[in-house]
């Protein structure tokens, strides 16, 4: 494997005690097992209930960060992945913040930001249970397969494209 | 023409709340209410689950303060497994739990003051909302933003090494704890690379206090007079009257400082505290039984704790406590904005206590679990970041939970928050012809001083737009303003 590989962080967030809200956490757990098996030393994994201001510091040392969250968006059928740009737009519940907010705060306090993507996996049920719904589980597996393929193809190349974000788009 | 204004949801608090303001034909204050608009079903949900699951399961309640619920449930389960009511654990178990709790309070208070509250102070209540947030702080006061981020990170590290993991931590178990601290974990926190070490945390806690005190000198009007009203105060204190966030007895004082409840065993909380339901909110209204629902309400949280405690058992925080008490000549402090001052003193106390515990050899070795004669009922009380948190469970012969009653900190502050809204409306909105964003933010500033976590009292899912609705006296909608979430 090449030495000059980009440092990648997958960051899943949500409450796994609230059914499909935990799909981001499940994603990082399952992909982490696969990455270990493959021996990808340049990929790290992190997770939490929600993003918060300290994550601005946590992401600053990476080349690319892929946030993974559950989604209720009507327009998403299974999963979607999109670039994240810094934004100072404030959420209503400010105890938790958005990926774009984290990126913006990172640029303010560290003067450097990783390229960032948000992987949203469609969820359907949000009750006090720990198991994902069947449909969310299906979407999760689709998203994992998609990312695995992207990572394998990308990391096999000898001449790496430094526009990392583009590599992972659908 | 009379008016009704609705602020929905309230911003920079956790969960979803709605404020309705009624003005009369001359735009003068008539009535205001903070409504909690979602229903909480957790107490019902947990029935039928085995008791030993509770410390982990209750973390589903809220992603903001899972550690508080984890520890309160564990304390209740200590009673059920016969390990005592807070003083029966092994030294290792109790100290590990205390370290976890100090880490939690530290990071929670830091988030609230630097991230949520300081923008209102630095940019003004009526400042430009586009910069009145932590990004604005990072642009204009970068050192404060960096400190907030690193202090949060430090607190999270403490939680991680004591609870075992960041999500659904398993550290506290019925009767004790399931791990020691490793020497590496201890040294990382004690003498980690600058700034991630406890001495830097103490230094920054002191500088945060200086920041507030300097601001206070120049802005006495807003800090001392905004949403100030007399009240009773309730908290847990150590047996000898010291501030104790983890365990003690219940104490309440009136607005003059007279002890109206003292040395009450937390297992007996129901003999002294009851809850009332009102038709317009899903959040209950707790009160002291002997004063009844109308007069028995009280405040909890940092301000209440510093009012009820006789002293703080850590030297630097004690010095600050003395200044705090001197400001009101030893009388109870009834100024809502002084919650921030009290919160900053508690941040310093937590940092000092974390240092003391990290130097304690008991964390590295010793028995982890206490066993005793099993009972069927237990109460766990904790001074959570936002105030006194009650967890009460009963179990059956099959070890299943048959009853759960949770009075969360934010619920205890229900009436005080409503009064803060009323006070802000009277001061900023009543009698004015035009309602500005700054005036509406003033209402939110009053609520925000209490750092409410509405997720704990409800269960927030999904995103709501901010809506401000203006009605005439016949309830006809005159105007609607909506600010969309991301």
3D architecture notes:
The complex is a heterodimer of chains A (170) and B (486). Chain A has helices at 23-38, 55-58, 99-110, 134-156, 164-168; strands spanning 8-13, 43-48, 64-71, 79-83, 115-122. Chain A is of the alpha/beta class and 170 residues long. Chain A is globular. The two termini of chain A are 25 Å apart. Chain B is α+β, with helices and mostly antiparallel strands. Chain B contains 18 helices and 16 strands. A five-stranded antiparallel beta sheet of chain B has the order 3-2-1-15-16, covered by helices on one side. A four-stranded mixed beta sheet of chain B has the order 8-7-6-11. In chain B, helix 8 (198-218) packs antiparallel against helix 14 and helix 12 packs across helix 14. Classes of the chains: A alpha/beta (170), B alpha+beta (486).
Topology order of chain A in helix (H) and strand (E) letters: EHEHEEHEHH
Distance between the termini of chain B: 35 Å
User: How do the strands line up in the largest sheet of chain B?
Assistant: 3-2-1-15-16
* Inertia-based shape of chain B: globular
Q: Structural class per helix/strand content of chain A?
A: alpha/beta
The largest β sheet of chain A comes out as: 5 strands, mixed
Average pLDDT of chain A works out at: 89
DSSP helix count of chain A? 5
In which range does the helix fraction of chain A lie?
Answer: 25-40%
- Which descriptor suits the 3D outline of chain A? globular
Helix run count of chain B? 18
Count of strand segments of chain A? 5
Helix-strand category of chain B: alpha+beta
Trace the largest sheet of chain A across and list its strands: 2-1-3-5-4
The average pLDDT score of chain B comes to 88
Low-confidence stretches of chain A: none
State the helicity of chain B in percent bands.
Answer: 40-55%
Content of β-strand of chain A: 15-25%
The number of E-state strands of chain B comes to 16
Q: How would you characterize the largest beta sheet of chain B?
A: 5 strands, antiparallel
């Amino acid at each position: 494997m090449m030495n000059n590989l980009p440092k990648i962080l997958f960051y899943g967030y949500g409450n796994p005690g609230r059914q499909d809200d935990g799909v981001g956490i499940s994603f990082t757990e399952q992909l982490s097992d696969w990455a270990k098996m493959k021996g990808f030393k340049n990929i790290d994994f992190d997770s939490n209930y929600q993003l918060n201001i300290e994550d601005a510091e946590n992401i600053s040392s990476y080349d690319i960060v892929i946030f993974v969250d559950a989604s209720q968006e009507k327009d998403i059928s299974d999963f979607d992945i999109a670039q994240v740009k810094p934004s100072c737009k404030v959420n209503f519940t400010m105890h938790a913040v958005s990926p774009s907010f984290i990126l913006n705060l990172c640029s303010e306090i560290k003067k450097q930001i990783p390229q960032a993507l948000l992987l949203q996996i469609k969820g359907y049920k949000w009750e006090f249970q720990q198991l994902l719904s069947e449909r969310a589980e299906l979407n999760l597996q689709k998203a994992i397969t998609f990312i695995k393929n992207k990572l394998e193809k990308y990391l096999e190349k000898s001449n790496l494209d430094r526009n990392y974000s583009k590599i992972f788009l659908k | 023409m009379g008016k009704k204004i609705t602020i929905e949801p309230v911003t920079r608090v956790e969960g979803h709340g709605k404020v309705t303001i009624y003005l009369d034909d001359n735009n003068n204050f008539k009535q205001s209410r903070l409504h909690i608009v979602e229903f909480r079903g957790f107490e019902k949900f947990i029935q039928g689950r085995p008791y030993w699951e509770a410390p982990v399961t209750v973390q589903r309640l809220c992603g903001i303060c899972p550690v508080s619920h984890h520890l309160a449930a564990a304390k209740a389960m200590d009673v059920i497994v016969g390990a005592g009511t807070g003083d029966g654990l092994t030294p290792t178990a109790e100290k590990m739990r205390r370290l976890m709790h100090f880490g939690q309070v530290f990071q929670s208070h830091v988030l609230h003051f630097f991230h949520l509250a300081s923008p209102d102070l630095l940019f003004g209540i009526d400042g430009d909302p586009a910069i009145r947030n932590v990004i604005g702080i990072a642009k204009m006061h970068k050192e404060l933003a960096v400190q907030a981020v690193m202090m949060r990170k430090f607190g999270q590290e403490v939680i991680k090494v004591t609870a075992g993991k960041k999500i659904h931590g398993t550290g506290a178990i019925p009767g004790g704890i399931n791990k020691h601290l490793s020497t590496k974990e201890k040294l990382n926190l004690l003498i980690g690379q600058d700034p991630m070490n406890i001495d830097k945390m103490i230094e920054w806690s002191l500088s945060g206090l200086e920041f507030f005190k300097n601001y206070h000198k120049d802005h006495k009007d807003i800090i001392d007079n905004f949403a100030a009203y007399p009240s009773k105060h309730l908290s847990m204190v150590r047996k000898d009257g010291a501030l104790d966030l983890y365990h003690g007895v219940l104490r309440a004082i009136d607005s003059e400082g007279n002890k109206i409840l003292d040395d009450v065993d937390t297992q007996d909380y129901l003999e002294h505290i009851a809850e009332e339901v009102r038709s317009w909110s899903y959040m209950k209204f707790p009160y002291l039984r002997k004063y009844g629902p109308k007069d028995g309400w009280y405040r909890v949280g940092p301000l209440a704790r510093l009012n009820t405690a006789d002293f703080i058992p850590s030297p630097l925080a004690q010095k600050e406590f003395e200044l705090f008490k001197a400001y009101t000549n030893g009388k109870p402090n009834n100024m809502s904005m002084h919650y921030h001052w009290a919160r900053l003193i508690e941040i310093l106390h937590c940092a000092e206590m974390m240092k003391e515990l990290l130097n304690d050899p008991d964390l590295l070795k010793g028995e982890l679990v206490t066993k005793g004669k099993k009972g069927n009922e237990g109460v766990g009380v904790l001074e959570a970041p936002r105030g006194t948190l009650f967890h009460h469970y009963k179990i059956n012969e099959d070890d299943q939970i048959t009853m759960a009653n949770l009075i969360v900190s934010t619920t205890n502050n229900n009436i005080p928050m409503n009064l803060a809204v009323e006070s802000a409306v009277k001061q900023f909105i009543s009698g004015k012809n035009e309602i500005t964003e700054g005036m509406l933010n003033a209402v939110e500033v009053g609520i925000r001083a209490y750092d409410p976590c509405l997720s704990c009292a409800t269960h927030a899912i999904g995103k709501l737009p901010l809506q401000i609705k203006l009605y005439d006296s016949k309830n006809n909608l005159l105007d609607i303003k909506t600010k969309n979430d991301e």
